[in-house]
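Consider the following input, taken from an annotated entry for FAD-dependent oxidoreductase (Nocardioides albidus).
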Amino acid sequence: MSPQQDQQAEVVEVLVVGAGQAGVATSEHLSDNGVPHLVLERERIAERWRTGRWDSLVANGPAWHDRFPGLEFPDVDPDGFATKDQVAAYFEAYAEKIAAPIRTGVEVTSVTRHEGRPGFRVETSDGVLDARFVVAATGPFQRPVFPPIVPAGPASPLQIHSSDYRNPDQLPEGAVLVVGAGSSGVQIADELQRSGRQVFLSVGPHDRPPRSYRGRDFCWWLGVLGLWDLETPAAGAEHVTIAVSGARGGHTVDFRALAEQGVRLVGMTERYDDGVLHFRTDLADNIAAGDANLLALLDQADEWVQRNGADLPEEPEARVLGPDPASVTDPLLELDLAAAGVTSIVWATGFATDYSWLPAGALDESGRPRHRRGVSAEPGIYFVGLPWLSRRGSSFIWGVWHDAKHIAGHIATQRSYLTYQAPTA
Ligand SMILES: Cc1cc2nc3c(=O)[nH]c(=O)nc-3n(C[C@H](O)[C@H](O)[C@H](O)COP(=O)(O)OP(=O)(O)OC[C@H]3O[C@@H](n4cnc5c(N)ncnc54)[C@H](O)[C@@H]3O)c2cc1C
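Applying the prediction step yields:
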């Protein structure tokens, strides 16, 4: 595209793509730095909180924690857990409060670097823009992924990803296999079992912090212990599935309690042969590693109390785990789906990113962002909201606000160099 043709394009200094929490936070910090910008959102503000999650979902962290510093939840007890609709309303109110320049219903389809001049040509569903800087705020969880273990076919169970799960009534009658024991998998399995379904839950490695300990929520403990601030670990070691729940007022995810309730625990789902699913023999190890993670956090919390002389009540019962359930001591290694009446599989197996619309220089050979703390290897492109962008908390509500501040500051600094005028003699 020639510079001539680009002269037709709307010119924006900074284009932020996406108006979830990451885009709203970026807009706030750009405004604070006096940087003109536009946010384009293909659907509505905080769309994923509105329509990308199941009906009964509440925030995993308490309202005092899972929010931006500039606004409290108006209608949620600070120690309570906001519903997904309250979270969406919160970000809409926040965008209004900061007068974020958001244009909804516009999708960004490609960003290409100009030749011979700075900035990018941005193609959207509503025309072409010319942007000096582009911030990708399109979310940590863009493309649902699940392994192609069970072939689709008329005789196969219904298979959906957790992002398409809404409520138990959506699934055909019968038993359900939920694959994945992070926060989504355990909450969906719990809800399905409570609705009267027979549920099998395939449990992989996970962390399971206590919901609260010695009177403080785990979000507080991760904060004072510096664990939210853990810096980006080595590539490949960054994904920790964390099993927590704010459902029913919040509780510690406890696989023994789930088993007692009637959920049949199984190991990682490995392969499928002729109607039969095979599970790994790792269930006991995964449960034991999750227990060790819980106990390690209690140890760290106790040390912190000791060191700081804090007046927090002791809670020895938090260390009582109880005996392993039969599904752990006598693990089910095979499941004949038809014989067990399994009519649905819910894959709570995570998400991938999709940045195929960005210039190739911003991505590595696998299509993953090349960046340092959100500053892309492709100058002028930025990322916010990625897991572990700068720290463990980066993809969560409170964490993205701090990362967005860094990115807006970086852009402001770049602009100050670019607008420098040498003094005239
Ligand atoms: C089930 C679940 C529960 C969670 N619970 C919590 C919680 O309790 N607390 C917490 O802190 N975190 C939670 N998270 C993690 C995180 O807070 C959310 O995933 C959050 O939605 C991420 O915000 P984001 O702005 O980075 O991305 P998103 O919310 O995904 O927003 C990205 C936006 O970009 C738009 N977009 C995408 N592509 C384009 C394009 N090409 N052009 C224009 N617009 C585009 C999308 O429509 C979307 O609105 C949860 C995540 C999941 C999956």
